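Consider this one:
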Amino acid sequence: MSKFTSRPVLRWAVPAIAAVAVVGAGVAAKTLAVAAEPNLPPRTAAQLLVDLQTAQLDGLSGTVVERADLGLPALPSLLGEQSSELTSLVSGKHTLRVWYSGPDKARVSLLGTQGQSDIIHNGVDTWTWNSKSGSAKHFKNSGEQDPTTKGPGAIPSEMPKSPQEAADLALKAIDPTTQVSIGNSAKIAGRDAYELILRPRDTASLIGQVRLAIDAQEKLPLRVQVFAKGQGNPAFEVTFTQVSFARPDDSQFVFNPPAGTKVEEADPAKAGAEGQPKVDESASGEKPKSTVIGTGWTSVFVLRTGTPAQAAGTDAEAAKKAQDAINQLPLGNGGRTFNSKLFSVLLTDDGRVLVGAVSPERLSQVAADPAAALK
């Protein structure tokens, strides 16, 4: 599988990760570049799986549209049409431009009506830039890393930024708990594509199916759709509307801050390994404990984070904001719950977070399991 957007992912309920912002997605179906079914030579599901896992990517550029219709509550940070903030990918529709020219050169640009945000990775240099705030951050990397998920200002790691990345997430879920079949062929972004369908065998999963459209020539994903159980429209979709598999010009990966841009040089001393900010430790210096209960599509990820005050350390204002946000969530099933079409979240009173592509009731049952105590 290509290195285009590969990165570590949690091994629980992978399609749910693709949906949680704790997996963002495009435009309405009528605006997608999909035409009548092309007449393609038959291929089996097993052959398409091999195609995906052995495809090679030397270069790519294109336009990606994302749409997330997860049924999330109206969070203030997610409001606004076509937001250009990288953190907005968890809701609504968004357009991104992507460029890739080998593992040391990649760029993602999130376009919005009020500006754009870019992450540019070129060798040991990574830049993040926000046109609305007129600010940029430069980080000198110690080695090769994924520019979209590591370092200051990275795109939320759970949100796939391309069909390739979304397919990688879905393929992680393939095991005996998954039924794999062939769907209809399609023309996407002007290219012929096969369709592979993944369905959970466990009906307790909130995921109904995941559909992958695979380029007939390049063997790479052009579109990924995630459907909630019983729903006819995707709750999550990421697709190319235009794509080229030629290597982009090197100039695409050179960033020169526009005049007036406030440039911040990141301090490597304040970051962890490979430039990852040290955000995974509590105020006491202990790393949060975590575990996975169950397997396959209905597995549940459990993380002990402590109280908002503990997580915020000495920042009283941050602790208050976190607690206020939690207090707005419905109370039930042993804690505060946060539900969507594809996943559920339970925040327990003793400082644990449970997430899975299952119902709140299932999360409550897992929370009572001694294996999930994390003491």
